[in-house]
Amino acid sequence: MLKKILKSYDYSIVIVYILLCLFGLVMIYSSSMVMAVQYYGYPADFFYQKQKINLIVAFLIFIFFAVFPYKAFRNKKFLMVMTFLAVLGLFAVYFFGHATNNAQSWIQVGARKIQPSEFVKISVIIYLSAVYANKQRYIDQLNKGVLPPVIYLVFVCFLIKIEPDNGTALITFLIGMMIIICSGMRFKTIFKLVMLGVLLISLLAPFFILKMDKIFTSGNMKRIEGFLDPFGTVGDQGFQLVNSYLAIGSGGIKGLGLGQSVQKLGYLPEAHTDFIMAIIAEELGLFGVAFVILGIGYLVLRGIFIGISCRDPFGSMLAIGIAGMLGLQSFINLGGASGLIPITGVTLPFISYGGSSILVLSICMGILTNVSMFKNYDKKYKTEKAAPDPQLDTLRTKHQVGKAIQR
């Protein structure tokens, strides 16, 4: 039994996950050593050592979720506790949160900071996947089957938005919508849901107009201005983006060499978090960028394939939700660093510095690996059990013929 289970694991997911984490650890050291010494007065390997501890804990968590049966997350009591803790964490941030970079998104726990909104992303994936899997018989009934989970999704996104953390709120909402689209609802039901959303936004439009300065803060507007005209605002809001351009442009195909970045010498703030890809492009060139994009791209495509081929609706939605989270978060980070979209402060999966981020990503990879294992096991071994045996069928036929002759 154990041998069959071990054979059913998708080890390509594990290998790519580990390679990306180790590559990210190296780049965190390279991109943060100058900032750690000059800005914070820490040792050069300060952020590297912290991320190393984060990765050790994260890998143990990955192993746990890779072997723990994902179907247990469908339990109603577990879902109630999980959603309660997710909402409680967001409320705790609102009242007791620690502000960093104009966002009150962290809770200080001793020497560590925890970002509850990161854990909300995986809780939304599990909750929506479980609820819609349980509602398959009446999935197209708007009041009973569709709206309750949507209301929860909108509520937690609102709590994340007011931190304010627009990037995470957007990712969480889009993940939820992706799961809803893949839940088995008919197009007609999804269209009704979209029309209901448009109607609600239209009714709340006067409120949005009156509270425009609260919804779009000065920090938000500066990021938009920096996105629209980075070189015209290079002394202020366009500073990060222009220096990101310089880092990416100077790297070329081969890069300047590992550790040889110029922009990390105080020119590009937060180089080890939001803009780590700019440092990768500068030091390792096109090859370093391609390694990261191909690695994350593989995990996204693998997750989508697992979701499509999984027969269990819950496992299918879990896999697609995790793949969607990886893809969306990567696009928003890379889009901000390259000037394709406004900067949001979202980290690059597996590569950027951050304890909460790598823990959540490891949970996601563990669950995805577990879903893949059960899918492969059911397909290979349960199908073999159910497959007809030609010799047995021949014996049965002869036995039936013999009985008929005796009669």
Quickly count the domains.
1
* CA distance, first residue to last residue: 44 Å
Enumerate how many helices there are, as a single number.
Answer: 15
Strand content: under 5%
Mean pLDDT: 85
Give the helices and strands as they follow along the chain.
Answer: HHHHEEEHHHHHHHHHHH
Task: Tell me the total number of β-strands.
Answer: 3
The chain-level structural class is mainly alpha
Radius of gyration: 25 Å
GO molecular function: lipid-linked peptidoglycan transporter activity; peptidoglycan glycosyltransferase activity
EC number: 2.4.99.28
Subcellular location: Membrane
Transmembrane segments: 12-41, 53-71, 78-96, 116-133, 145-162, 168-186, 193-210, 275-301, 313-332, 352-374
Structure, explained:
The protein is mainly alpha-helical. The protein has one domain. It contains 15 helices and 3 strands. The protein has a 3-stranded antiparallel beta sheet, covered by helices on one side. Helix 2 packs antiparallel against helix 3. The longest helix has 34 residues. The radius of gyration is 25 Å and the shape is globular. The chain starts with a helix and ends with a helix. The C terminus is likely disordered.
Features:
three-stranded antiparallel beta sheet, EC 2.4.99.28, Probable peptidoglycan glycosyltransferase FtsW, single chain, disordered C terminus, 407 residues, 3 strands, globular, mainly alpha, 72% helix
